[in-house]
Amino acid sequence: MKRNAEAIRRVQANVRAVADWTPRHWATWLFAVLRTGDEYPLDFSRFAEPLDELEAIFEHAGESVRSAMKDGVIKAIHEWDRRYHGYGVLQQLSNAAARLRASDAIHDLADFLMRNRTRLERDEDFFEVADSIIAVLAGFAPDPIIEKVFNALLFDDKVSPRLSGLLSIGLTMSNRKRFPAAFDRFIDRRKLDPTFFDDDQVVTEYAHFMGPRGLAEEARHLQLPAQQYLYSNLAKLRLVNPEVFIGWDGGEGHRHGDLAGFDDREEPTHLTVRYDAARIGIEARVKRRRSQTLGHAVLSDIAKRINANPAATPA
Amino acid sequence: MMNDGMLTNPSEEIAQYSRHCERLLHDVNAVLEDYEEHDKLDYAVDFSEIYAFVLPEDSHESAPFDDGWAGDHLRQALLLSNFFSRRGIVLPEPYILELYTFYDRVAVGTFGDETALVVDAIRDLERLRKAGITKHIEELAAKADRTGLTSEEIDETIEFFEQRGSLLISFARGADRTPLLRLKQLFKSQPFVDLETAVPEATAEIDEGVVNDLYRRLKIKRKTGTPASSKVDALAIDHIRAANRVLQPKKRRLLLVTRSPHMFSALSDVTNDPAWVGIKPFIRHPRTFSAAYDLPQSADRDTFIRRVRVRKEMLELFIHSATEARQTGGITPARYAALKEKMKEIQEEWSSAETLSNALEKKRETSKGELASLAHRLLSFLRGRTLLQTAKERIVELFEETSRDIGLVGARMQTPEVTLGSVLYPIELVDERLRNTIARLASQWAINAGEAASLFDEAAAREALDDHEFLLTIAISLGGIGRWSVAEQYAAYAVKLAGDAGKPTAEARFFHALASRKLFQPTKLAEENRLYIVTGLQEMELALQERPDDARYLNESAILRGHELPAIENAKKRRKQRAKIAAIFERALSLPHTDKLEVQILNNLAYMHYTVDPPDYDIAHKYLDALETKLESQPEPRDRWPSFALDTLLYGRFCLRGSSIDLATLEPSVNELTQVAGRSDLSRAEQGLVGQHVKIMARKLTELTQPAPSPDRPRARRQRHKAAESRD
After folding, report:
1. ipTM field
2. In the A/B pair of chains, how many CB contacts fall below 8 A?
3. Chain A residues touching B389 at Cβ < 8 A
């Protein structure tokens, strides 16, 4: 509690100190703190990250200070120079823009990426800052500039495939209608470096934006490999019920259940993908001993659950 | 549905008969083959048969005549129950996956409203009494109590009810069991074994080419339905083909029980394909487990087979005659008469082979005396209140089920208690104890399933309770758990019984009006939907004649009138009508009322003034303030305030502020209302309405918000940490 009270007092003191700071002040101070770690004349906790403290000031400040802070970050990004400041500072400035919701930084950040797109192929030093800026820009979606830039980078064969996850998510966030093209492209690029991606995270990010069921629904527009990747991961992560993939038959092909993304034109291969996803989803839900078949495990699971709820005596 | 020769076109009628006879002939041939060969037979089952057993009312199979199976859900359920009582029924993996997803859904109790059957059965009984009960049946009813019934009398009784009160039979048989109970019954005998465990070598024989071929054939034959069903069935059929390939040398066969004519037909088409050579047809219709085909334990095998052969010949003769008649000059009146005679013989043979009594008789092999007890039960319905007593027992079961199902949902959502609904008004029953219990429940803003069930339990335990009060309590309990469609039926019946008994009807009418209103969906325009309001208004008018100075009645009556406001096209008239309704609400406030009722009235006044066009924001403002003050004076914290009031407050403040609303005010309101929209004390229609409010407010929120990053996105967060680490 004491620590909280102290933190609040410190933030309030900082807010008072910056009351008349102009964007120029902020830009200068940002360069200083991000290069040297010295937050003077403000007072930051030694346990906290500078950007956390910056965000705290922003949250507690009035509208005029907030506006100056945003403009200061935008100014700093605009004035950033690799020779003097280095990529690390730009990376942090872009994160500061994200935290302070300084959306006008989009222009400079997007421009930076486009000017350096040739370096997105193989320059390892550059890769990290580019990755960070793409993440920040994706956070500002939807925006027509972001859509344009992400589209250009995602479909550029020279851009590293490692960026395709973020670019495809960002492109979808910019324009949901681009989801099938963006996701198919990601799957295509992923093949070039399959072990790099954290598939759980990619699918979770998509599910976070589109909703797990919405994602399963939209998957009908995807190419088969993309559909397979998406369904199996949604199932494995238990983000949707297996019912979504397979449902059940109420007689003569009348399908029941909360089915998602069904298409009457589906070919057997697509249906196999759905079937396999249902299988993966169910396997993730039932306990299965090594010697047991899946069918046996499922029947045991249902029997166990039914007995766990003892039946009322039927008349 | 049964047709019984009602077709006006004789050719079409004969053609239909002929087609169905061909299907029966296939069954008979297959069964005879099974009897004559000495392979050991095992059975696998299509998931659709499990579905038909658990939800018999969803079965769609029909036939042009009574073949002992089609068109009668009860008989089908009994025959399937006989089939499922055997052990070791094989399920191929595709059907196991379907069963899993189906079970998941059944377990959370989203199927059917079986409580409706109870009230339907009561209506059936009433119709039966009106139509007149024969003297003979009355004598049987009296005799049943004294000395018991002979087997002929038992059959007579069941036949009597079969013809006149099928819902009563369903009820007496326990056909209103919840789907979950039926699934439990199914698993109790542990009937299933998975195919991979039963025939492990079969997996190696599965052929993707065969699956795809079957899939295409099924898809073409089915025309409707989703391709996924054809895929699952194709996979399952191939699993069984593979198993039969393995079992063949061991003189064993695995038969698939399914009613699907398309699966049967697809298999008939492929018998000569290389993958199928040596595999005997293995599909059997579930009706082959009825008396017309299934060898009874006590019967002589040879006599029985002779009997089946006679049936086969009858079918062949009819098919032959019908084909010949069609090919040589069409169905003339003379030929039609001759064929009709043959049709009658077949119909008699089949329908007598499997009557309900027969189906039950089979059950008796495992539970003796069930048939007699059914007849006793049916006769006892004719003598007074036994049906209501049985209804009590059944509804107790349903409540137990609901509580458990909801408990399951609660466990899934990881919430300690799931609030289910509310008892909006204290309904004043004559029975003092029940009146007090209802008043206690009505004093809370929300109740859970357990509390609704305890109200019902209390009513069920009251021996001297009037029938209409009992039904009204059922209605209140069902309303308490949000089952308004059934609650409405019970309330309507309670009104009727109270009227018939010459008792005051006001409270039953009042609750019936409330239940009707709860079924009204403001966003739907259909006439049927509007009828709910008309019914409610009629009931309230009659109730107010009995008790004109009841604040609850005035409130409910004004709400119902308020629902009619949007339909008035003229703005001036609308405003005038709104003023009249406001006066009714104000009058209710001037009469003795509870705090909870005051909150409701203030809520209604506020909501009506800002939603009905043209809005009157000044008056709305006044009532919103009064509502908030009233709620704040109550002991419940804000998160326990009733959902409808929170909606009125949050959406009302939003509407009143208009374009001047700022982000800091709007954002928390949208978040709070989003939580409210999902609460289960709102009916589905109310949830939809709150959802609409959320949408409108969220749209404004988007306008106010700059395109903003979501700082919690893990990827972005990770990037920020990375950035911090790499700082110079």
Report:
1. 0.81
2. 244
3. none
